[in-house]
Design goal:
This protein is an alpha/beta fold and about 400 residues long. Helix content is about 40%, strand content about 15%. It is built from 14 helices and 15 strands. It has a seven-stranded mixed beta sheet with strand order 2-10-9-8-7-3-4, sandwiched between helices. A four-stranded antiparallel beta sheet has the order 11-12-15-14. Helix 7 (about 185-195) links the parallel strand 7 (about 165-170) and strand 8 (about 200-205). Helix 11 (about 285-310) runs parallel beside helix 14 (about 375-385). The longest helix has 24 residues, at about 285-310. The radius of gyration is 21 Å and the shape is globular. The structure holds pyridoxal-5'-phosphate (PLP). Pyridoxal-5'-phosphate binds near residues 100, 124, 236, 245 and 247.
Length: about 400
C-alpha cells in the first residue's frame, strides 16, 4: 500500500501507555496502580437496580435517544440540589456512553476544522484525539507545581486565546494532577470566556471525589456561563461502576442540540438497563457520597505517606483517584524510563505524566499512582515501594 492505512488526524495516537503498562503488570506480577478504576464494585442496591431493570424488561431495547426520562430528571435534580443549577430534563440534559462519548460528541459537534481548543496540560488522553478527530488544533496551557499543588497560570491562559479559539476544555477535579480549581481561578476563566466569547466544555467526572477543605464548583454557575458551558459528568467514578459507561451532558438547548447531533451517529444510545440503575443511584442519601469521599481520603493518605517515605516528592491531591509524584528526589529524571523499570525494580506499576503532555519535557519528572484500590493492595504497594 502506498498510503498508510491510518489517517493523518490520528496517526500520532498509537496504542495508549495503559495497554503497555497493564501488560507489564500482568507479566511481572506487579501491583497495578496505573489505570484508574476501582478494584471493588459500587453499591449492591445499585447493582440490584440494574438486574431488576433487565428482568423487568426496562432498557433491554433501544432507549430514547436523549436518555430515559427517569435519568434525565435525576441528573437535573442533582444539578439543582447540589449546585443551584436549573436544567430542563427534556431540552437541556443528554445521556451519553460515559463521559468519553460526551467529550467526543461535544468536540465533534462544536469545533470547526481549524478552530483552536485550549486544554489544561497535562490532559486526559482522549482530549487530544477528539480535538484531532474534530479537525481542531489543540493549544495546551500547562499546569505547574507551586506550593505542593499544580496551578493554572491565568496570564498564560489569557495569552493562549486567539481569534481562532473556539473553546476551553476544562477538567476539575483534574486528572492526573488532583488539582481542584478554586473559586478565584474559575471566576477568572469565566470572565475570560465571556470577554472573548468562548465556549467552555468542562469534564467534571470527579465532582464527588474531593477531599479535605476542597470544594468542587461547576463553572456553569458563574456569571455569564450558563449559556456557554457544556458540563460533562458520569456515573463511573461516582458509583464505582466504570464498566457501565453511563455519562451525561447538561447545557443550554442549542448546545445540547450540537452535542446530540454528533452523539446520535456515534453510539445513538447505550446502556439501557444501567440508565435505570443510575437514575436510582443519583438519589442515594448524602451519607453514600460522604462515605465514598472518606474512604478515598484515607486511601490517598495511606499511599501518599508511603510514597513520601519511599523518597518521592508527593503532590497530595485535593480530588480524583490519583497522586502525582516528582521522581527527582530519587535521582531520576525520565518518568517514562522510570515507569518501564519500576515493575522490575519493586513490582509496582505507575503511569508517566509525559504521555499527558504536548511539551513532554515539562512532564518528564512526574509519575502518577492510582489509589482507588483496596486497602490491602495499597499496603502491599507501599511495602514494595519501600524497597526502592
Ligand atoms: C475516567 C475519566 C473519563 C471517562 O469517563 P467514562 O464515564 O468512563 O467515559 C473522562 N474524563 C476523565 C478526566 C476521567 O478521568
Amino acid at each position: 500500500m502506498k498510503r498508510p492505512p491510518l489517517n493523518r488526524r490520528l496517526a500520532e495516537f498509537g496504542t495508549t501507555i495503559f495497554a503497555e503498562m497493564s501488560a507489564l503488570a500482568a507479566s511481572t506480577g506487579s501491583v497495578n496502580l496505573g489505570q484508574g478504576f476501582p478494584d471493588t464494585d459500587g453499591p449492591e442496591a445499585v447493582a440490584e437496580a440494574a438486574v431488576r431493570a433487565i428482568r423487568d424488561g426496562r432498557g433491554n431495547q433501544y432507549p430514547p435517544g436523549p436518555g430515559i426520562p427517569e435519568l434525565r430528571t435525576a441528573v437535573a435534580d442533582h444539578q439543582r440540589e447540589r449546585y443551584g443549577l436549573a436544567y430542563d430534563p427534556d431540552t437541556e440534559v443528554l445521556v451519553t456512553a460515559g463521559a468519553t462519548e460526551a467529550i467526543a460528541a461535544a468536540l465533534l459537534g462544536l469545533v470547526e476544522p481549524g478552530d483552536e481548543v485550549i486544554a489544561l496540560e497535562p490532559y486526559y488522553d482522549s482530549y487530544a484525539a477528539c480535538v484531532a478527530m474534530a479537525g481542531g488544533t489543540r493549544v495546551p496551557v500547562t499546569l505547574r507545581p507551586r506550593d505542593g499543588r499544580f496551578v493554572l497560570d491565568l496570564d498564560e491562559l489569557r495569552a493562549a486565546v486567539t481569534d481562532r479559539t473556539r473553546l476551553i476544555l476544562l477538567n476539575t477535579p483534574h486528572n492526573p494532577t488532583g488539582t481542584v480549581l478554586t473559586r478565584e481561578e474559575l471566576a477568572a476563566i469565566a470572565a475570560l470566556a465571556v470577554e472573548r466569547d468562548l465556549l467552555v466544555v468542562t469534564d467534571e467526572v470527579y465532582e464527588h471525589l474531593v477531599f479535605g477543605g476542597a470544594e468542587h464548583l461547576p463553572i456553569a454557575a458563574f456569571p455569564g456561563m450558563r449559556e456557554r458551558t457544556v458540563t460533562i459528568s458520569s456515573a463511573g467514578k461516582t458509583f464505582s461502576f466504570t464498566g457501565w459507561k453511563v455519562g451525561w451532558v447538561t447545557a443550554a438547548p442549542e448546545l445540547i442540540t450540537a452535542v446530540r447531533s454528533a452523539k446520535q451517529y456515534l453510539t445513538y444510545v447505550s446502556a439501557g438497563p444501567f440508565q435505570y440503575a443510575i437514575a436510582e443511584a443519583l438519589r442515594l442519601p448524602d451519607t453514600y457520597f460522604s462515605e465514598l469521599r472518606e474512604d478515598l481520603r484515607a486511601k490517598r493518605d495511606l499511599l501518599a505517606d508511603g510514597l513520601a517515605q519511599a523518597g518521592f516528592e508527593v503532590f497530595r491531591p485535593q480530588g480524583t483517584y490519583f497522586i502525582t509524584t516528582d521522581i527527582r528526589p530519587l535521582g531520576e529524571h525520565d518518568g517514562i524510563a522510570f515507569c518501564r523499570a519500576l515493575p522490575g525494580r519493586c513490582g509496582v506499576v505507575a503511569i508517566p505524566h509525559a504521555v499527558f503532555y504536548d511539551h513532554r519535557d515539562q512532564g518528564a519528572p512526574f509519575v502518577r499512582f492510582a489509589f482507588c484500590k483496596r486497602t490491602e493492595v495499597l499496603q502491599d504497594a507501599v511495602k514494595r515501594l519501600a524497597g526502592l
